[in-house]
Structures are given as structure tokens and as C-alpha cells.
Specification:
4 domains; disordered C terminus; 6-stranded mixed β-sheet; elongated
Length: 630
Amino acid sequence: MPSTFRTNPVSLEALLKECEAGTLQLPDFQRSWVWDDERIRGLLASVSEGFPVGALMTLDTGGHVDFKPRKLEGTPPSTTKPQSLLLDGQQRMTSLYQTTMRKEVVRTITARRVKVSFWYYIDMQKALDPQGDREEAFIGVPEDRKVKAAFGKTVELDLSSPELEYESLMFPVNRVFDWDAWQDGFGDYWIDKGDPEKRRFFQRFKNEVLQNFKHYQVPVIALGADTTKEAVCLVFEKVNTGGKPLDAFELVTAMYAADGFELRKDWIGGVGHEGRETRLKKFRVLSKIASTEFLQAISLLHTRERRAAEEKAGKKGRELPAVSATRQSLLSLPLSAYKRYADKVEEGLVRAAKFLHTLRIYREFDLPYQTQLVPLAAILAELGDRWDHEGPRQKLTRWYWNGVFGELYGSAVESRFAKDVVEVLDWIDGKGEPGTVVEATFRSERLRSMVSRLSAAYKGMNALLMKKGAQDFRSGQDFDHTVFFNENVDIHHIFPKDWCKQQKPPPLDFDSIINKTPLSARTNRIIGGVAPSVYIGRLEKGRKDSPAIPGERLDAYLASHLIDPTLLRADDYAAFVAARQQALIALIEDATGKSVHRDHPGTAEIIEIEADTSDEDAGDAILSSTEEAA
């Protein structure tokens, strides 16, 4: 198969002139120019010595990929249609254009992120010093071309006229490709000064420094116009190691822009326009919803519709297009499909937030799997108002918990997205159980190794306890939406961490979910680090900010957390662990509708896992009591 790219060296000056003319532009998904003064000077120094600065990568226009183009920052406006787009090398080419070709001050930043406006110069003497550091020969001077002392009164270097440049032996970088007039002025100046030797000095500077700019060749890898969208995305991610990886949303944004649709504005919003992202993130549980996840949900619905249409037309098996949310499917997502499904998916995500609230999952922080939002939103978008009917909601809830406790959404999720969207909707309509429900398994010993929020099942267990009706030890309140946020509810130890460290009770890591439960921040402060029997006494006795609680009522609060009050009052850690493990297993079985595999007592190895570093007892997710819930 013939190669889809070609490689050849191109003159730096020619490339910069292409940028200026507009025949070489950027695809619109490229980010802004961000290089700082130090990197700019390092780049100029390398070119001045003829050192390599890396290859560029371009894409010929007029082929499969139709990106909206934009000119490099600082180049003059132009209506010229680009012949190629710069995929890799934007920062280098923009830096070189602004410093060497443009006759305006360069607006950049320092290494400390302070905004500055510099004209760049070459200290000719330092540049010709064989023992010197070439980078030190390049300096940036302020917009008025006067370098002042630390307190801004004394001018240490004045380059505000050509004559002052000549006198200081400072060559302006924006003349490196066009030095003739400056050279003539330099020679005349020093002849008038009675120092014609300076003309030979300049000749040496030209030969050893300026000619390196003039003759500099840049390796260019040019991708042909027949390069696919998928290949462009993959190539860009491979070469863009110095910055944030390009995602599919940015490529789709550029493709839709070519058709006049502003995808980024639709998602993020603009002046007087609230974007979808802003509307969705009013729900705390959706606070990390990503633009690519939104596109994935749309792709699932679009490809499902295509498959259904082909099936209706009589196609079968491999003839049918796949339901998909892969990057390739996103890059093939037509603008018409986005417009058709965007509102529907947004509403699906709103329903997803409401559904998760019914499961007592209120924050992204407590969401077992961010990835499971994608099929959940697509399913709820398709169900419409049916989602809140008893039958569909029960099946949806069972599917959700099987995904969580089966820990099935941690890897290879795109294929599961597609399967679940098809199979869960079919299941709700009366067909067989989806693969996620069938495949999910949970072993009883897994509870012992669930010690932090890194585990989806750990977060799921906390939500199940709140959904089951767990009541705060102190207030007796259920953890509904209002109480959860007003009381700063989080996961806390039952047998406190400090007590466990002192007593070292067998046989379980005390950070396991078996020894944790949802509690308010105030209640956790009352518990402190003492034995359960002691803090139970405190709760029963009461104090100024917390009234006394009758023992019988407190026992009921404890039991609502699947805790045996008798064992807690006796500080019997081993018996508590055994009893609560069985109670939690029963809760998981009820949620998933499946039996949990019980390991034989004494045969399972105790898993030692490093304790959660989030320090839940310290209140690692402090929330404002006035936070508004969407």
C-alpha cells in the first residue's frame, strides 16, 4: 500500500512566508500560542546555531478531513484558502514568525507567567563568543526599547533608534531574513565614528549567525489529502506529547465549524448564551461530565437508530452497522445527528442526575463510575417519561448496581456502552437480561479489601446504606438530598481509626467498608477516636449542642446502618465484622438480584491494602451548608 505521507526539508523562511500569506494555516481545534520568553529565546538560539528544533507535520487540504482553518497568531488577515494545515509545530512556528518576520512587539509571558511585551535582539558580541552560551546572546527588551535598572529610573540599555542599536552592537531579530538596510546603516555609522573594522565584525556575524537563519531547513512530514479523520486524530495525539492530548470533541468541533456550526459555543456557551455544560453541571453529580461523554451518548443513539433502520430493511448479522461510541464513531458523527440528538441526550443526563439522587448519589465525588453515565444517559434519553414508571425503574436500578458491584465499568467500557444501551432497552421491553446483569459477580471477601473511594463498589456500598434508610447516629435523620449537603455527610469509621490503631483488633483492615458508614460531620466529631462504648455513652448523655438520645432510639439508629448495637456496645470488633459483613452481603444481593459468592470462613487470605489517604474522618469533602441542590 502506498505511503500516505511524504517527508522533505523546507526552508524556514519559505515556511514563515507561507504562514504570512495564509497558504499554511492551523486547524481550528489547535489551542492558542502559549510559549514563554525563555522557550522563545531557546528556540532562536538553536536556529542561530543551525541546531535541529524538531520536525513539523502538515496535512494537505481538500481531502477527507474538512477542518475550519485559522491563521497563526500574529499573521496578517487574509482570505487565502490554505493549501495545508499545521498539525504539529504551531508553538515553534508562531514563535519564529512573531520574532523574526513581524515588525510589531511580541506579547508573551515570563517563566513566572507575568505578561510582557518584548522586542528581541541578538547581542552580537556574545553571539560570536566561542566560549559563550548562545542563548544568553538573545534578549527581550521592553516595548519602549529601554532596559532600566531594578527600580526603573536608570536606563541601562537604550535601543530606541537604529543608531543606538548600532552603538550597542544589538541586532534586531525581526531583521534576520532582511538585514541589508540595517547592515548599510551599521557600516555607515561606524565609518562616521572612525571604526571601519566594525564592517568586518558584521560580516563575521552575518556568516556565523544570520546565514543560519537564512539557510535553515525544517524537516516537514506532510500527510496527504486522503488521510482519514481517525488517522489525523491518532497522529496528532502521538506527536502532541508536550501538551494536553487532543480529544475527539476538538476534532468534531473543527469539522462542524467548516459547516458553520459552533459546537464549542453550543457546549460551553458564550456571551448571553448558557451552554449545555453549564446547565448540566448545576447538578453536583454531573460536575465532571465531559464533552466527549456527551458525544458518546449521542453516537450510541445515532448508531442504534441506523442499525434498527438497516435491520428493518432486511439486513442481518454482520451486514448490520454496529452500535458504537468509539472515537471513530464520534469522528464520523454527522452534524445532522448531533442536532437531532443533542437536546434528547441533555435531557437524558438530567434524568440520570435525578435517577442517581434516588439512589442517594448526590456528588461526582461519590459516583461509583463516571463512565457509566454515558449508557445511563442514552438509555434514559430513549425511555423518556417511562423511566420513572415502576417496572423500567426497577430494571434500570438493578442493571446499575450490577455494573457497580460487578465492577464492570473500569476498563473496555466502549464495547459495554453499546451492549448495555441495546440490551437494557430490550430488557425493559420484555426481552432477556442484559449481559451486565448476567456477567456481574461479587465475592464476599471483596468487602474486606474495599478501603477507599478508588473502588466503585466502595462508593456503591455507601449509597446503598443511605438508600436503605441509614439514620445519623446523633440526629436520627435520613440522608436525603437536603440533609446530605446541609450536614456534610461523608463516609466515616464505626470503630474509630485511633482506637483501632491502639487496640489492633483482628482480623480486618479497619479502613474496610465493613467498618465504615455514612455520618454527618458533627456526629463524627462527637465520636472522636474513642471506643464505640464510650461514644455511645456520649450520645446517650448528650451535650449542649446535642440533646440526649434514649438508648432504645440510639440502638434503632445503629441498626439502620446494619450494625448490631449489642456488639458495638461491647466493643466486640471481631463479632461486629462478621455480622456486618453478612448484613452488607444481603444488601448487595437485594440490590443486584443475585447471590453473592461466600468464601468459606478461614480459607480466604486477609488482603492488606494501604489505608485510604483521603482521611475521611477529617471531612475530606467539606461542603457549604447553603449549597444549592439542583
